[in-house]
Amino acid sequence: MNNSIDFSGRPFHFIGIGGIGMSALAYVLAKRQLPVSGSDLRPNQITRKLESLGAHIFSRQEASNLEFFRPQVSTNGVLLNSQTQLSESKTILPQVICSTAINTNNLEYKAALELGCPILHRSDVLAALIADYYSIAVAGTHGKTTTSSMIGYMLLEAGLDPTILVGGEVNAWEGNARLGESKYLVAEADESDGSLVKHAPAIGIITNIELDHPDHYDTLEEVVDTFQTFAQGCQILVGSIDCDTVRERLKPTISYSLHPDTDADYTVTNIDYRADGTTALVWEKGKALGVLNLQLLGRHNLSNALAAVAVGRALNLEFGEIAKGIATFEGARRRFEFRGEAAGITFIDDYAHHPSEIRATLAAARLQARPGQRVVAIFQPHRYSRTIAFLDEFAQSFTHADVVVLTDIYSAGEPDLGQISGEQLAAEIAKQHPQVIYRPTLPSVCELLMSTFRPGDLALFLGAGNLNQAIPEVIATLREPATATS
Question: Are 56 and 37 in contact (CB under 8 A)?
Answer without folding.
Answer: yes
